[in-house]
Amino acid sequence: MKLIVKDMDIATGDVQVVILNEQDAAMLDLHHGDRLLIQKNNHKTTAVLDIAESEKAVPVGHIGLFEEVLTALHVKHGDPVTIHLAKKPLSVGYIRKKLDGKELSYDEIYEIIKDIGSNKLTDIELTSFVTANYIAGMSDREITDLTKAMTLTGTQLKIAKKPVVDIHCIGGVPGNRTTLIVVPILVAAGLTVPKTSSRAITSPAGTADTMEVLCPVSLPISKLYQILDKVGGFIIWGGSVNLAPADDRIINVEHPLSIDAEGQMLASIMAKKASVSTTHLLMDIPVGKGTKVEDRKKAVHLQGHFERLGRELGIKVCTMITEGAQPIGNGIGPILEAKDCLWVLRNDSRGPADLRQKSLEMAAVTLEFVGKAKKGKGMTMATKILNSGQAYKSFLDIVHAQGGKDIDPESLKPSHISFTYKAPKAGTVCCLDNVSISRIARMAGAPRDIDSGILFHRHCGDQVKNREPLMTIYAHSREKLNYALDLLKEIDGVIVK
Asked: In sequence order, what DSSP letters do the residues of 370-423 get, joined into one string?
């Protein structure tokens, strides 16, 4: 059947969608969610059908195309196209099999992941896959197959110089920007460190958000190879280079459902490491209230899974189980966290001691793990590299290679709109709750507003006087600051006893 294109001037961001008038849909016996093959000359694509109930939305004899479909077909408003009913992808049947609690083969998992990565599944189909894995769980073999499928359906960096070193933190601790300090130490030691990082999903800043304050983090693959040859490492946003693309769509489904299926989490992390030819991985698992892993038993359980999966992929994994009961550093939010990292790299006394110490510990373990330092000598080597200024020089080399310039930490200023929360009584700061702090900082605007966030004046264990400043909240607007303050009143994010 031939129809006339109506440009809907709407983009979904991923899935290809078309709209028919309900009269045309009824005549063709089509329903919501059916797939149509749309063709114009030599160009064709498959899209998911939605149905309009009014002539105003899409007239009879027309087909409304979202931007992704217009681009795929190289058509414009008013062009004629031909439509045919298309079969559902084979992966839909495999998702149904998983919903029945059955184990999937590698080929079945690969087909699902390929279709997720190429946006061929609807939100309902994708959500069904995520939910099935969450409820039924995944076998070790399925997790390994899922990891391999995620890796092979995305971009891969083939790095010849070995070892290729990476570090990763499970997350859940605001301000934990150790990457910006550890990576330069390792690069200064002569290691190859292709660090791909995430943007914030539920936190006030991801590593990529903080690094972007200082330099671009979205770079083409060709540029990344040049940086590795010239500098030895980079710190970029992984989403810009299409590493394990199915993973991002899965995460987008998990987030609103507040679920984090273990198998998918393991595959998500390890697929991205495999995608950059990692040979040695340091895994940081923070443990404590408000983190993703609240007890040591769970951390040890995950440690075993990461090491097993690493063996399957040819990646040596070393795990650190660290204290994560409170935020790390003084600043929370992109600008404030970038400032903390620069202070530490410059060996300035204003650099947070906890961020410096944890970064040195991670670097020390890694240097011993890859054989750069003898056992027991990693801390000495890491400290020397940091104290000598070599780490700062390597960091500037990375920043310059990624298109950034030298930045004085003093020039990184948070918003002038702020509120300082003071101790309600004299005593000891006994709680800075990770979840509450993250929510308050995000309500203030972080990470979207890079000058928003929280600056701590005191940490857990510190003695405070009555009305002494505990933290300052910065917001991009007075309205956002009021939202953050309303939330602060509702939750016990900061407790003094």
From this structure: TTSS-TT-HHHHHHHHHHTTHHHHHHHHHHHHTT-----GGG----S-EEEEE-
